[in-house]
């Protein structure tokens, strides 16, 4: 004889593939009805647009149809209430950080320049590629909300799907996880004309509402300057530290010192300095030219009291690869010592003890 208890017992064997708990444990099964050989019940999803709903429905139907005496199964779909979501540890509407408790990120490193045009996003991308080539599990959070370039560099297009816990990041060919505002816009050319508070909110959501999963390194690409976005990252994200990017010009050095001072005021560790566009090697003669003047990277790092991580060349080929979305093809030997240094020195994630002012 078909009973509600037998149906619940059968559904207790159906596992939610993302939450790793059964439908019964999660409280998704409700309103079971039985009439002769027909069974109907309601399945409450965490979100209506759950991409796994077809799989859950199919497995739930198969489990109930396997019972003797069941000839037909009908499943109605509904959404959990905010209270029900909170009860299973997901949080409700208006509560950021739904996915945060399920993510396990060992190191969070922000790449900061203080000045635009020094190749900060390029350094971010190449650092992520070098970590990945070293066998690390890597993600990139594009916090440059008004000037995002990370998806273009990696050749990513299209809106990432939603999962039960939040947004699923896009993945590159090498398996680097990426989240950027440009992946969520109707058009890649659409301008993001937002004030600081909204930008800060988006960055917090990229940390707390994106399903990063298990990562060894999350590299955060900061916009130029020392305003809202950088402040939000330093206060809200558990940073292991900041990597500074400069170029040989004196102006770049002056602005990078401002970025370094901000990190120090926020009590965020400075992991080191990278000098980008340090030199150009002529492909015909092999001669090295200092197009932007002599290098001051080591001197600047010494004055800032941080390790000098290395010089990167001005290479026309990398511009071609980035324009084509093929940055992962670029050889990253120059980043080997940088990755080695960060592996040895970067601490576990920690939030800045300097909290935002309340007013």
In short:
The chain is of the alpha/beta class and 359 residues long. It has helices at residues 4-11, 53-65, 82-87, 120-133, 150-154, 196-208, 228-236, 250-265, 297-304, 316-323, 336-345; strands at residues 15-16, 21-22, 29-35, 38-45, 72-79, 104-112, 138-142, 170-171, 177-179, 214-221, 241-246, 270-275, 280-281, 288-289, 308-311. Helix 6 packs parallel to helix 7.
What does this structure look like?
The chain has 359 residues and is an alpha/beta fold. The protein has 2 domains: 4-87, Fe-S cluster assembly (FSCA) (GMP Synthetase, Chain A, domain 3), CATH 3.30.300.130; 100-345, Rossmann fold, CATH 3.40.50. It has helices at 4-11, 53-65, 82-87, 120-133, 150-154, 196-208, 228-236, 250-265, 297-304, 316-323, 336-345; strands at 15-16, 21-22, 29-35, 38-45, 72-79, 104-112, 138-142, 170-171, 177-179, 214-221, 241-246, 270-275, 280-281, 288-289, 308-311. The strands form 4 sheets. It has an 8-stranded mixed sheet, sandwiched between helices. Helix 6 packs parallel to helix 7. The termini are far apart. 40% of the residues are buried. The mean pLDDT is 86.
């Amino acid at each position: 004889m078909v009973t509600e208890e037998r149906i619940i017992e059968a559904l207790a064997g159906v596992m939610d593939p993302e939450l790793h708990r059964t439908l019964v444990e999660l409280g998704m099964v409700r309103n079971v009805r039985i009439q002769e050989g027909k069974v109907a019940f309601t399945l409450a999803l965490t979100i209506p647009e759950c991409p796994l709903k077809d799989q859950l429905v199919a497995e739930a139907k198969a489990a109930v149809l396997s019972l003797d005496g069941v000839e037909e199964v009908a499943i109605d779909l509904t959404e959990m209430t905010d209270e029900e979501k909170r009860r299973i540890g997901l949080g409700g509407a208006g509560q950021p950080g739904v996915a945060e408790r399920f993510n396990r990120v060992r190191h969070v490193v922000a790449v900061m320049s203080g000045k635009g045009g020094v190749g900060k996003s390029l350094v971010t991308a190449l650092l992520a590629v070098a970590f990945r080539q070293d066998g690390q599990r890597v993600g990139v959070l594009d916090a440059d909300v008004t000037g995002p370039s990370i998806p273009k560099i990696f050749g990513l297009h299209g809106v990432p799907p939603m999962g039960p816990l939040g947004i699923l990041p896009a993945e590159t060919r090498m398996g680097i996880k990426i989240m950027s505002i440009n992946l969520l816009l109707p058009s890649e050319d659409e301008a993001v004309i937002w004030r600081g508070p909204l930008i800060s909110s988006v960055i917090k959501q990229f940390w707390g509402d994106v399903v990063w999963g298990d990562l060894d390194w999350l590299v955060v690409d900061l916009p130029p300057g020392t305003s809202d976005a950088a402040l939000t990252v330093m206060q809200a994200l558990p940073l292991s530290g900041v990597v500074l990017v400069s170029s040989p010009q004196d102006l770049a050095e002056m602005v990078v010192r401002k970025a370094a001072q901000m990190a120090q005021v926020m009590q965020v560790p400075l992991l080191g300095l990278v000098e980008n566009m340090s030199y150009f090697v002529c492909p015909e003669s092999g001669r090295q030219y200092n197009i932007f003047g002599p290098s001051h990277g080591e001197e600047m790092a010494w004055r800032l009291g941080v390790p000098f991580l290395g010089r990167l060349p001005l290479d026309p080929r990398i511009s071609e690869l980035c324009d084509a979305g093929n940055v992962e093809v670029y050889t990253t030997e120059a980043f080997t010592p940088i990755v080695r240094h960060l592996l040895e020195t970067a601490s576990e994630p920690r939030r800045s003890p300097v909290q935002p002012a309340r007013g």
